[in-house]
Structures are given as C-alpha cells and as structure tokens.
C-alpha cells in the first residue's frame, strides 16, 4: 500500500454533532439516493453505518501502514466461526462517538435505539467457540496486536429459531439480504483452491498435484476496531467462486442450466454454516469447507510474507498462526504442501517452519466432538495432503519409538491414523504434532487434556500443552450492554477500567455501602424491566420485574443440563403447591438456546421447557411466585439484553464436560450471582470471587469420573430422593404433555437407565443450593453486596488478559 497523507481522508475528524448530522444527511443523499423526508429507518441505519465506517477506514489504513513500517510479527487467527453479532454500536463505542452520534440523530429526529436494532446479527458461529473468536478479534485490536482473522463468509449463518407449539423450528438466516455495509470485496485477493486429481513425483521432496476440481476463493474484509480506535484489524472472510462462472460451450449449445453447474458447486462451499455445536458434522462438504478456507488463508499469508520479507524461511519470526479448534487443522498439511511443492523446501526444513508457525487451541474433550475423517474420503479429496500426513506420522511415530519407553497402545494412541475399525485421520493429533503450543481454555480443561485426549502425546512432548483461560471483551459485555453499571463503576474505579479491567476491584470498598447498593439495585431493576418488556412484546407473557430473574442461556446440550434445571423447576412447583403458606421467593426461570437440528434429545428438552412453562404459568396457585419462559432465537443480541437483567446465572454442566464457558463470565461481570458446578472456568471464578460470592454445588470432575468407573446406579439415587422421584414421575406421567402422555418416557428413561450426565446424582445438591440462593435473596443487602463483588472481581476474565497471555507466551508479539 502506498502511504499517503491526510489529504484523502473522507471526512473531517471532528466529532461535533452538527458536522456528524451533515455527514449523515450527505451519505443519505449521495450514497443511498434518498431525501431525508422519505428515508426509511433502514436508510438512516445505512447512512449512520457509512459515517462510522469512514472514520474506521481512516484508522484502518493508519494501522496497516504502521504494521508494515514496524516490520513486526502478525497474528493470524484461523476460525471456522466468528459470532460477531451487530457491529455498529461496537464501532461507535470504540471510536467514542456514541453521545455525539446520539445528539446528531436527535437533531435529525431519528432514534438511535430504534435503528440500531434493525442491523442484522452477523451469526457466523454456533456458540461459545465463535463468540470467543469475536471477543479475541476485538481484544487483539484493543491491545494493539497486528492481527487478521480468517474464516468463511457464509451466505447463511446460524439458523433462526422459531418456537411453534413448543417445538423448535429452524428457518434459514439471511443476514446479507439487504447488503452488508461493513465489508469490502477484494477482487484482487483471490486464490485457486483444488480438490481431487492426481500427483506426479518431482525433484527432491516436491510433487506436482493436478487437482480434478478447482474453485476460486475471493476475499471480503471487515474492519475490527479496538478500544479508542488504537488499532483497526482485519477480519478476512472467503467466498467461493467458480473458475469459469459459465461453461460457454454448454451455454452456446443451448444448455443454459448445465452451463451454471460450476457456479452452483462453488456456491455450496461458502453457502451455509454447519449448525452443529460440540458434535462432529462428518460430511464431505464440511471437510471441503475446512480445506477451502485453510488453503486460501495460507496462500494469502505466504503472499503477504514474501511480498514484505522476501524469504520464506523467516515465516515463523513474522507470522503466528492460531488454529481455533481442529476445524482448520488441515492447514498443517497445506502449509507443508505449499513449502515443499510450491516453495521447494525440503521436508525437514518445511516441518521445522510449520511447527514453529502454528499453535492450536483445543475446545472440547467430548469424544463425539473430536474430528476425524475416513481415509478414503480424505484421500479422494486431498491426495497430496494424505501423502504428507503419512510422512508426518512416520516421523512422529519414529520419534516416539526411539524414546524406548512407550507401550504399543501408547504409540497407536499417538498416531495420526486411527486404526480401530475403519481407518480415519485424527485431526486433533495432526494439530498437536504440527504446533509448538497446544492450549486448553481453562485450568481444569487443560489438566484434563493432559490426562485424557492427549495423554500420550503430552508424554512425548511435555512442554507443548499450556493453559489460556478464556475471557470476554468488557467493551461489549459491560460498557455497551450495561452503560449505567459501567458509569457507576467508572465513578468508583476511574476512567481506566476499559483498558485495565482489574481496576474494578475498587468496587470492593463500596460493596457494603447502602447508597451504592441501592444504585446497583436500581440499575438491575431497569435492566429487568427492559427484558420484561421484550418478553411481553415477543411472547405476550407478563413478568413482574420484582421477581428473581434466574437465567440459563446457551446451546441446548445434555451436558449443559438444562434438564436438571427443568426437573428442579418441576420439583419446586410441586413443593409450592403442597406448601403454599411458606414464604416462597418469587422467581422466573428463563431459558433460551438453540438445539442442533439433528439432536433429538436437545429438541425434546426445548419442548419440555415450553410444556412446563405452559402448565406452571397458567396455575393461579403458583402464579405469583413461579414463572417459566423459553425465549426464542437465542443470539448475541438477545444475550445483550438478558445478561444485564440476570439476578442468577445458571452454570450447571456435569463437572469435567464444559471446557470453559464464557457466558458465566458475562453474567458475573454484570453482577449476577452464579449457581454452578466446579466445571470449566467456574473453578477459577470461585478463586477470584471467594467462595462466599458464588454458590457451588455437586460433584467434582474427579468424583464424576470415579462414580462412572465404580458403576453408577441412578435408580438407587432416585429412590433415595423423594423430590426427584416425584418430579421425574410427574414428567413421565404426562401432566405436562396431556396431548401426548408418553412424550418424555425415553428422555426420563435415559436418566433412570444410565444418566451419563449425572442429573440424578447432582439433583439433591442442586435443589439445596437453590434454597441457599433463596436465603441470600431474602437478605437483600447481602445479595447486593455479592452482586457488587461479582462485578468487582471479574477483571481477570477480560479477553484483553487472555490475549496478552497468548501474545507473550504463544505468539511472542508482546514484551
Ligand atoms: C457467550 C455466548 C455463548 C457461550 O455461552 P456458554 O454459556 O459459555 O455456553 C453462546 N452463544 C452466545 C450468543 C453467546 O453470547
């Protein structure tokens, strides 16, 4: 890029509201072609985004020039998911233009809050893993690390969920329908991507691969603004295009449909996000997507490196590539191919460069979520990569054997090829051996990784595994979603909290201050009223904001145990009906979350939540003290309303199964009390909060493992707990499903038979913990103090802290 002076800056730097208003009207007139008197709310939204975007672009170019000049190392974050949500408020906040734009729009008679909600959510992710990638992008810009995110520009992101008669219905999501003013198409940045075909041996280690199919990857860039616009980084997403959009021969022969075949095939590659979370998709198209975006990204990285530094061997000094889970793990083989076949390095040197460039983040220990591909499929799509994987494997196994102490089972556990049953490529092992760093996402998860999935590889390479506990960006998850709490925190802790979230500890000193407590309670009440209005608008259900808002929102999965929460709700309902005279704490149980379309039990759990809600909400005997609601279409924007309104945060996964969680951190930061198990980052939350400021219950991860090993008999536990037995019987009996009394036989039968997720085993402890929560609620001053201490002590869980640790300990880009 040619440096140029300020002359080309598109807009004056001034943040004067009058100038901003003029800017907005100018965009409306000249870019959208509308007069202010006829402009729709959508037109105003686009006009405002264009004004904000121009200011972002100015900073973006400065950042790009600065990175080039410094000749420093760049970070590349490869992720099949980026769950970014809406971008406008993010950009306005980080440019510190919110008040000024609000004023400008007021003067134009436009309501910022109304147009803000018209922006579609960029839902290019399933859940936690994709949201983490989005928080990381924002934090890398905020702590001034030159970084690129690489992913796929899905035409259809995460499906939209409707609830029809209590059942989940999946509808296609069409975020690009009205265009995307944030992105810039880069026709000049396009790469060839091949599949299949044949290989010829060449000189030395090099081969020539002639793919049978070819596509083009075309780049679309979105600027990601850091806090106070310190730096603007790039999110580069790839769209698949045909090499020949129209087969002219066919077209001229009159076969107009056949002529478009290539176009349709290409389109499929970047068409849709796989809407499965924590389960392996296992389809050919998924492997094609993984290779498509890995190859495009690596070609782009090598092109940038060579054009600036000229020498391929300095790659590890100038580029750090982070693999977000195993989805981009084929990158290890692709970089080897590019270095050996295209850049003519020998195998040894290529392998050394590869290992020094890559790092890998593991996100799950669930066996069903560990990616592996059948060898015949892999070989057919990526024949050259298959060869390279065999060669890498031979080298690793040779190294392992030469240690002399490993048993044959250990060697076969380290192999990149799973030889049990039909042979498969293990993507986790490929990522492990091809990386110099393998990190888990919480202390507990990292320890378990060393003991389970990577036990043997960890023995062979004991220095590679390390921990980087997840975090969330405080700009979005405190400042934007809860501006009043942020302002109060700023009054107490000073202006620096957004650059140093640990400064929130200043709030500890005012936790017992009656006046501060009242202000915090009033802010919570306002947030609850806002959520209550949303529920009224969307569901026609009225919720008294004075009730305790008890919230569980996340993907629906058996290990996350929404079912435990629902069963406890049924038990509570039963108790209230039996003892209406007791001083029950009024509560509303709120749920939201999507189930993978093929996940039968998860969809049944959604239906059960809705069935229970229907009965409970209609019962005049319990109406004032218990309500249940399942809010449709959980996404980032809904989380932004629900998180600040929570009194109680449910983080109740079976210990050992949630890698970290990030929802838990968002709630704590916003002053909710957590009821949770010692799982994922809950363990570290307790350490930072102190045991008095979080309600922990249930078995530990090692107790769960022990119980499974000992031969757990759930019926014994159920027989010993009258409340649990009664609740399970009620659900089985059809009280909540009179139209289909046997609807939940199998779901509850699963608990009786095996109860893999230990619902029965943890039930009594969970119910007791809930009554402890009631006791705290009755002492409102104690509750408010705990709420303030939660906000005060969540500084550690800023994604800025996480990213600084990656920067220093994995990427070597920070002092
Ligand atoms: C934070 C977040 C998640 C992750 O939630 P967990 O409770 O950690 O599973 C998932 N989806 C959305 C939309 C989020 O904002």
UniProtKB/TrEMBL annotation:
UniProt record similarity statement: Belongs to the glycogen phosphorylase family.
Protein name: Alpha-1,4 glucan phosphorylase
Protein source organism: Pontivivens nitratireducens
Glycosyltransferase among keywords: yes
Single GO molecular function: pyridoxal phosphate binding
Pfam families, per the entry: Phosphorylase (PF00343)
NCBIfam families, per the entry: P_ylase
Residue positions, PTM N6-(pyridoxal phosphate)lysine: 666
Lineage start: Bacteria, Pseudomonadati, Pseudomonadota, Alphaproteobacteria, Rhodobacterales
GO biological process annotation, one example: glycogen catabolic process
Keyword list, A-Z: Carbohydrate metabolism, Glycosyltransferase, Pyridoxal phosphate, Transferase
GO cellular component: cytoplasm
EC number(s) on file: 2.4.1.1
Catalytic activity: [(1->4)-alpha-D-glucosyl](n) + phosphate = [(1->4)-alpha-D-glucosyl](n-1) + alpha-D-glucose 1-phosphate
